[in-house]
Structures are given as C-alpha cells and as structure tokens.
Write a structure and sequence with these properties.
216 residues, alpha+beta, 2 domains
Amino acid sequence: MAEIIININPASSYEDGDIVCAFNNHSVQRTHAEQICHYQHSGFTNDGLRPEGKSLDFLNCVYQYRFERVSNKQVKRVETDCFGNILSEEIFGEGAMDADAYLRRRLRNPKHRIFGLRGAEIWHGGKGDFSQDALERAWNIVQNNCECRLSSGPCPSCGQDHTLWPMGRLDVRHFLCTQLQDFSDVELAALVSDFSMTFNPGEAITDPDGDVVTPT
C-alpha cells in the first residue's frame, strides 16, 4: 500500500489539491521502524549510557560502521552488513582519535546515542542502509523485542497501523491522505517533482529494486 498527501487547506502556500508528499510501502515501513526503535525511547543506564536492546540492534543493522572503545586511546571500527556479518575490522590508535575526549564531548549531549558500558562504549557511523533486506531485518528486530507488529489495523502494543503513514492530529486538519497501489521510489519522486526536468522524455530509468520505469 502507498499513500499520497493532498493539500486541503486553502490558507496554505500550496494550491488546493496539490500533492504535497508521497509515501510508498518501503518508506512507511522504514519510518515506523525508526520511530519504534528510536534510541531516545530507551532511556539511560546508571552510567548515563543507552541500554542494550532493540535500539542498539536497529542501529547495528542499518549503519555501516559500529565503533567499539578498546582502551582510553583506542577504538575498533567494525564494518558489517545488515545481517551482522563482519566485512572488515580496524583499530585506530591515539594518533587517529582520542576516545576519551570524543566520548566526554558526546556524553554531555542529553540526546547522545552512546551504548555499552563505561570503558567499552559503542556508537555508530558511516552510511545508512535502508535497502529492502535491511528493512526486513529491522522489522524482525522490532517484532522480536516488542509487541509491535507489521500488519494492517491498530497495533496491539501502540495502537498505530504500521502499514499507513503516521499522520499527526494537525496533519489531518490540513491534508488528505489517499491510499494507492504501491509504487517504486522512482515513481514516488515523479509524484512530487517535475520528471521532465530530470529525465528526457521516454528515457528508461531503473529504480533501486531493478524495475524499469519509463516516464511519459
């Protein structure tokens, strides 16, 4: 299922009936998984770090690198895929990074996402992977760690329908959400932008899933 968000507020900067946003099934599932696993929901340990659990597992899944503190001056960078397979490992010494200074600075921010234990902290970086494989793995993490389920209808845990875009109370006053048959990421972009400015007429484009889309 996919959705388009249409403006119905005549006082806005959009024309009445304009398509403001479009969300395919992939983007809807990604947004719900990110919200459910958001690290700020997990609170803190007695040491002021983020506890292990679904937030850590989710970040391990979607981020390219996991950084692990080895000592006061050493950090190990572990590159993994979304399934947790280790692709490479490298240890950085004092000349590359001062782990103590870096972590002191990060931990002063109340919104930090530093996990683990004091002296063995864990954090993440690099590129984010939101491919279909990564998304399916992320939802396995969600469903193995809480009662939220990826099924239509109100979730037994939080009450949201995780197959629909999460519209807020203010959103529904100004926009109309219309459900459509699912579409690719390339088709999504076409709904909210001028395709002719990006592609030549009739040019074949392959989307990230390998499907060929021919704009008119």
